[in-house]
Amino acid sequence: MSVNQQAHTGPPYGQPQPGYPGFQQPAYGAQTLPAVPQSQYGAYNGPVPGYQQPVPPQGSLRAPPTSGAPPPASGASHPSGHLAYSQFEHGDVQNGIPASAAPMQRPPASQPFLPGSAPTPVSQISTFQQYGPPPASVQQLRNHMAGMTIGSTAASAPPPAGLGYVSGSFSATGSGLHTPYSASQGPPAAGVGPSSYPPSTAAPRPPAMAGPALPGQTVAGPPSSQPNHVSSPPPPPPPSTMAGLHPGPPISGLHGPPPPTHPPQPGYQMQQNGSFGQMRGPQPNYGGAYPGPPNYGSPPGPPPPPKRLDPDSIPSPQLNELPPQQKPRHRIDPDAIPSPIQVIEDDRNNRGSEPFVTGVRGQVPPLVTTNFLVKDQGNASPRYIRCTSYNIPCTSDMAKQSQVPLAAVIKPLAALPPEEALPYLVDHGESGPVRCNRCKAYMCPFMQFIEGGRRFQCCFCSCVTEVPPHYFQHLDHTGKRVDFYDRPELSLGSYEFLATVDYCKNNKFPSPPAFIFMIDVSYNAVKSGLVRLICEELKSLLDYLPREGNMEESAIRVGFVTYNKVLHFYNVKSSLAQPQMMVVSDVADMFVPLLDGFLVNVSESRTVIASLLDQIPEMFADTRETETVFAPVIQAGLEALKAAECAGKLFIFHTSLPIAEAPGKLKNRDDRKLINTDKEKTLFQPQTSFYNNLAKDCVAQGCCVDLFLFPNQYLDVATLGVVPYQTGGSIYKYAYFQLETDQYRFLNDLRRDVQKEVGFDAVMRVRTSTGIRATDFFGAFYMSNTTDVEMAGLDCDKTITVEFKHDDKLSEDSGALLQCALLYTSCAGQRRLRIHNLSLNCCTQLADLYRNCETDTLINYLAKYAYRGVLSSPVKTVRDSLINQCAQILACYRKNCASPSSAGQLILPECMKLLPVYLNCVLKSDVLQPGPEVTTDDRAYIRQLVTSMDVAETNVFFYPRLLPLTKADVDSDSLPAAIRNSEERLSKGDIYLLENGLNIFVWVGVSVQQGLIQNLFGVSSFSQISNALSTLPVLENPFSKKVRSIVDMLQGQRSRYMKLIVVKQEDKLEMLFRHFLVEDKSLSGGASYVDFLCHMHKEIRQLLS
Ligand SMILES: [Zn+2]
Q1: What pLDDT is attached to residue 331?
Q2: What pLDDT sits at residue 381?
Q3: Residue 77 Cα, ligand 1 centroid: separation in angstroms?
Q4: Pairing of strands 600-601, 557-563
Q5: CA 496 to centroid of ligand 1, rounded, Å
Q6: Cα–Cα distance between 46 and 44 in angstroms, integer?
Q7: Which residue from 339, 619, 640, 817 lies 20 to 30 Å from 599 (Cα-Cα)?
Q8: For the sheet containing 800-806, what is the strand order?
Q9: 440 alpha carbon to ligand 1 midpoint, in Å?
């Protein structure tokens, strides 16, 4: 079989799995989760054609193989005594491309969809953004907002001193009665309305993909050079000049400075505006803690510099050297430089209407901003894997020349829209999955069956392996196995295998995992109402723990710990009338004082747990204890999981720097003076290696840590985050937590975090075909060797970016293959392997590389690369090397791919025309160029967040989405057309929404009609709008409903609940908002898009001269 397999028709599993048991989990509160796969796999029972026989998940028991236990086949079965994780044994992968493989035809560099070849799915995913038409006109706002002053607000409430809490053995006998908590707390209805999340997986999957598949001729079309990112096919030789910068007409601003042989041009002002210079002066006018609540510590400063793009300020120092006819007008029209909005819109129009069928090698998928369905026909969906390029240079020389990083962004457990089928679970019985004898790659659509089907040749290492007798099948006249369409592992890009005991730790099937809730009960936590909030929430949330699809209740057990300077464990055994507390005050050597009764089944111990959760807020209501420990808390959870011999997750709710005497004690070492010095990197590094060692122990046990932080001051996220980060966990931060304004956000995050799909004790290995190999990894995980990515827990939102390097030549005929294998334990304790395969093209022409790149993925990689770089290098060095690499990428294109034209012309590859604007956003981000009000903790937090983001998340994080709400059509479901992130695009008569995945800003212009203000905010004038709003008032009018539905829709698309901030034009909070207008010059010294484009042009010219 050729790698370049043709799209085939109608495999039975393009449809919802017949055995799909349905997602029985009712919506929790008002919240339905985004399509989180809950492991409800239809069973796939071995070599039975079709998938009609669901087998209920067996927990730790395995289903017997339906095909009968095969006799050990010589040389083909697993060696007995397999070590744990034997799938990840090193194989020596050194052979060339399979010699006997049928020559693989090189498909078109990229494949356009032919309209009409498949029915458009009726139901599109409602939660995906839908932009309307592009903005017809842009009103400009030239408001300098002078005279803005920024007040100063005290940050943290000083806690009283004192060590009031005395520990002791305690048998809780409290009445459990307490004043009903404020009405605002309420049942888990929080924040989002039902519409805010996509339909849960409960809904039977509509057969959106069941229609006739794209016929084979889909792949037979003539190669179209640029189906991606453009609205009309450009001429085949691809040097596409930038929109508005065609050769010929004189366009000046982008004519860079002269080559370096000329003396420096004094007129080049880049350094002066701080855009590209070394050091920026403080920006006294930039107020606002990010992303926290108003906390403007800065004194009033001088008015900000004029914000509007002034083309005249763009230096064109070399004008005198240009021939007269090229002397340009002094203007760079912002509309003439590549627009992210336009690119997004074009892709949506060109590629959003047809499913993306994965049957063709090296296809560039639609952009992450395009709403499309995926039909798996042999390659993994782009929801699982996206690449920086789908056409890899054949040689490492070529790769080095282009400087285009070869990387894949992998989200192994990604949630799918309900219209798409989850990966099938394949059970090969006791013999386990069929694998290559040498490199241990798993059976996949690219393996080549030979000798009448008795053996197969590995597509990764060429080794020939016997087909085990139970797996034997005849080949048809094309050499394809006759059961091809019946077996997911032969015809699909993504699928799962049920793992055998060989894949389990200590050769023992795992127990179901446990969740341990560990609540800080120090003064701040109690006083802010947080403890009570958490306890109230848990009472209902515990009924919604993740479970296998058709199980009545979750297999996950739960346990509870509270702590300040000491730890309190609770016995909540079902036979007890009341919970019992046991205190461990010796935190230096943590142990778990009880085994029986600590981890319990929720339904069995429901009464005792409810009683405990009622009592905890009362018990600590009068605490005076302000100090906390932290490491011992993790150690306690780890020890509990060890004792229970299971994996699990710790949910830690923590408020302060752990200064109490204990292992892992920290000191306040925050020092903003280090910014822009060689020591800046220490701000991102942990202050002690203690937590790295602890993380290692946690990973070994499968103990994943999710950390919810509620700081009122510096608490060293860089250090506290080490364990969550390295165990594959998440960090959430709610600075200056206030019950009233922050509880919805926190509760929504908590609910989603507790309920979402997560795999435990996970190990990921990426195999590649000969010629390239995975060399570097970015994400939240731990690595004890150079190949295996280990995660104590891996949830559906976590992404791993993998970089590849050449170690040999690749061939255009064979292409290149990736196979990502994730071994993990499901939430019911079932050991599984999830396999994703992807085939890529290889090229000998640089133009083919540049035609098949994906800038969004490139930015994801570059951001993660840079964000790791700040741990070891000065931030300026990191920024400079980013600029340099991108300049080289673009210079290589200009030199080798673009048609000859004036040297003064900036020519960008079509697929990378947004590289400058997006790169500039990365360079201006808080990690690489912080404003004065960005705290050290914010930077460490953002750095860790971005490292786990997928491509869609980095896209909107670096280039936020800006929607004119007043242009929304209240009668339609669609979103208003997005506009570019520049103040120039804002009109003071309109209201806008800006979202970046962490925040939602609602910006209100000073001249907005009173009626609109009344409808949205329920007040009669602009001045009455409160900027303390954290939600929009619920008002019964079409505009209010429309805006709230937009907000809910956006919230549902993101993995975190975004903080809503209302910003009035000319209000002090506007400084915070303007930070996100990323095409403008930033107050922290970041360049405007136009300035940066000029700078890049200069860099490119220097490289070319
Ligand atoms: Zn192999």
Answers
A1: 60
A2: 98
A3: 15
A4: antiparallel
A5: 19
A6: 6
A7: 619
A8: 385-387, 406-410, 800-806, 772-778
A9: 6
CA distance 935 to 958: 19
Please state, in angstroms and rounded to a whole number, the distance separating the CA atoms of residues 690 and 629: 14
User: 1087 to each of 271, 287, 302, 921, 994, how far by Cα in Å?
Assistant: 10, 19, 20, 9, 20
Neighbours of 700 (CB within 10 A): 16
Q: List the structure tokens of 474.
A: 């005849």
Written as one string, the DSSP assignment of 504-558 is: SGGG-PPPPPEEEEEEE-SHHHHHTTHHHHHHHHHHHHGGG----TT-SS---EE
Dist. CA 46 → ligand 1 center (Å)? 22
Cα angle at 619 between 617 and 625, to 5 degrees? Answer: 95
Q: Say if residues 84 and 506 touch (Cβ distance below 8 Å).
A: yes
Centre of ligand 1 from the C-alpha of residue 463, in Å = 5
> Is it the case that residue 728 has pLDDT exceeding 60?
yes
What pLDDT, in 10s, does the model give residues 448-481?
999 999 999 999 999 999 999 999 999 999 999 9
CA 770 to ligand 1 centroid distance, Å: 9
Vertex 243, ends 242 and 247: CA angle to 5°? 65
Measured in Å, residue 820 CA sits from the centre of ligand 1 at: 14
Distances (CA, A) of 985 to 295, 978, 1022, 1058: 28, 11, 21, 24
According to DSSP, residue 913 is labeled T
Max Cα-Cα span within the chain: 93
Cα-to-centroid distance, 461 and ligand 1 (Å): 4
- Ligand 1 centroid–CA 443 distance in Å is 10
List, for residues 340-394, the tens digit of each pLDDT value.
999 999 999 999 999 999 999 999 999 999 999 999 999 999 999 999 999 999 9
* Global confidence as pTM: 0.76
Å from CA of 791 to ligand 1 middle:
25
pLDDT class for 931, splitting at 50, 70, 90?
Answer: confident
Q: CB pairs under 8 A, 24+ apart, for 682-688?
A: 683/718, 683/936, 683/939, 683/940, 684/718, 684/870, 684/871, 684/939, 684/940, 684/943, 685/718, 685/871, 686/718, 686/719, 686/722, 687/716, 687/718, 687/719, 688/664, 688/719
Tokens 């019911």 found at: 828
Selected residue with higher pLDDT from 201 and 745 = 745
Residue 410's φ and ψ, nearest 5 degrees, are -115, 130
Q: What is the pLDDT of residue 367?
A: 97
Give me ligand 1 centre to Cα 801, in Å: 23
Query: For residue 763, what are its two tokens?
Result: 């190990």
State the distance from the centre of ligand 1 to the C-alpha of 437, rounded, in angstroms.
6
3-class DSSP state of 302: coil
pLDDT of residue 398: 97
User: Which 8-state DSSP code applies to residue 374?
Assistant: E
Mention every residue, 6+ apart, whose C-beta is less than 8 A from residue 509: 60, 61, 62, 501, 829, 831
> Burial of 1061 by CB count in 10 Å (0-12 exposed, 13-18 middle, 19+ buried)?
buried
Nearest by Cα to 820 from 372, 394, 413, 356: 413
CA distance 723 to 949: 18
Q: Ligand 1 centroid to 225 CA: how many Å? A: 34
398 C-alpha vs ligand 1 centroid, how far in Å? 26
* Residue indicated by tokens 């995660």: 791
Dist CA 473 CA 447 (whole Å): 14
Q: How far apart are CA 331 and CA 1024, in angstroms?
A: 41
Give distance in angstroms: CA of 433 to centre of ligand 1. 14
Distance 73 CA to ligand 1 centre (A): 18
Give the ranges where 620-689 is alpha helix by DSSP (H): 631-644
The Cα 897–Cα 916 span in angstroms is 18
Question: What is the Å distance from ligand 1's center to 1000 Cα?
Answer: 48
Helix axes 631-644, 690-701, angle to 10 degrees: 20
184 Cα to the center of ligand 1, angstroms: 59
